[in-house]
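Bench notes, afternoon.
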Amino acid sequence: MTVEEIVHRIGQRSERLASGLPVSVPPLGSDFSLNGVIPQPATYRAASVLIPLVNHADGLSVLLTQRTDDMPSHAGQISFPGGRRQTGDADAVDTALRETREEVGLERRFVTVLGILDRYRTGTGYEITPVVGLVEPGFTVHADPREVADVFEVPLAHFLDEANHRIESRIWKDRERRYYAMPYGERYIWGATAGMLKNLQHALTAGD
């Protein structure tokens, strides 16, 4: 899939979502999508993440972070840069770009926003707006050591290949919880991050 095709498909879906026009249903709407009827948070806090597609000459890659082991939630897990919406943020895109600069030092001037994807609700009570951005090489990573233990990239092709999509499960609070996982080498990418990557794959292949 070419960069031009990706720009077109993300932009097209984003415009339809913003206009309230019908789109194909994404594979996952939340952490609960694979788990039937289970207790869910009563309210959700607004948050955004950036899905950074780095435009290398030999192909696109996805920039990801690994959280530090002492974070109060999702410690040590792999995630997109992003976080909770703050009062001064203009919109979901502003939140994603601000959080990305704070967490990994990626300046806005390197990012062309392609659009937003379907919102995703987490078991920890966040409603996340994924913002897809095309990132030009030349940026320097400056990870915030309080939150980010590592910053790395994975070829986009890995996530677009359904052979790399697994449904796995574990026991949490005495219940079996099922989730997507997309391991890449020693990197175990799972949960909400894998769920949003699954939705990205759908957006790029569904045709709307």
